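User: Hey, my collaborator sent me this sequence without any context and asked if I could get a structure. I don't really work with proteins. Can you help?
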Amino acid sequence: MTRPITAVDVETRTLPLAESFPTSYGDLPTDHCYVRVDDGETVGYGEGAALRTFTGETAATMAVAAREQYAPAVVDEPPDPALRALARARERLPNHPGAAVAVEAAVLDLKARRKGVPLHDLLGPTRRTTVPTVSAVGGVAPDEAVERVESGLDAGYTRFKLKANGEPRADAERIDAVVDALAARGDPDELSVRVDANTGWETAERAARAVERIERPAYVEYLEQPVAPAATADLRHLRRTSGLAVFADESIHDLRDVRELLAEPAAVSGICLKLAKTGSLREWTTMAEVAADAGRPVTPISAFDTSLGAALTLHLCATVPRLSAAAEVIPDMVAGDPATETLEVGPEMAVPAGPGVGVDLPDSLFD
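Assistant: No problem. I've predicted the 3D structure and written it out in structure-token form, which is a compact way to encode the shape of the chain:
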């Protein structure tokens, strides 16, 4: 008989960013839920992150949901029944994705370690073992944005993410400054920037004001969530009229959202997926497959995770049928990473070979 899980430990942390990263939401701390499951012989680890402005979760709410609802559901169960019990617990207590995915990931890590295989072997066919990643730049002044992009170029990055702050004219100036820096180094098929407004332009009309000011749009890979989450008609209008690809982020939480946005005529050119919103690695992979069936790429985003959560996203990247130009896996943006060994960050990151997630947490974290 398969050994049951005998203990589940939950710890949460609120960690600062390693450096300022302004967005249209401001500069926020990061919230993390760490879970350890144990069957007496093997240990599994999971991490969930809270996106306060997306889901309303915090470190405190994740701690309560994980300790009082999700962890008790998996105790005394072998991994597969534990996952089914967790799914039922999520139905009883929805809208806590960070807490839920931390527990699910720990159970899946335990299962993969038992089998001696990397986590992605449990999630789908392996399509890649390395993943191109972006260098992310916040909504800083244009000259500072250029400095950060040039530093990224020197480090070998070819794909960049740039935050917009919600003011079309100022955002266009920042975009143009970054594009000029890219154009000085290469052609649009070699170098690009994706622009993330985090809903800050609010409407298609305001987003158009920013887009029409961009002098060399060929260097813009796509606009990410330029308008309010519920403004599907605005997304569709921008995709049709702006001349740029448009990806959804804040508009995507579950499989239903993916299907609605990609139903023809599709509102978006692609989607961004975050475990901090989906709350499940297995549902995340289904969402990516549905996007691929619609002919749309996915950008996997590790949303301010530390090394453990970032490694989870890398394993998901291994299975994605249609990947955008690069994933966003940037654990070094967060200070105080508790991993025993932190992930090495760079323009091309290896999917951990495992077994399991391939990242451990110290026992002291749970003392």
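In plain terms: Residues 97-115 form the longest helix (19 residues). You can pass these tokens on to your collaborator as they are.
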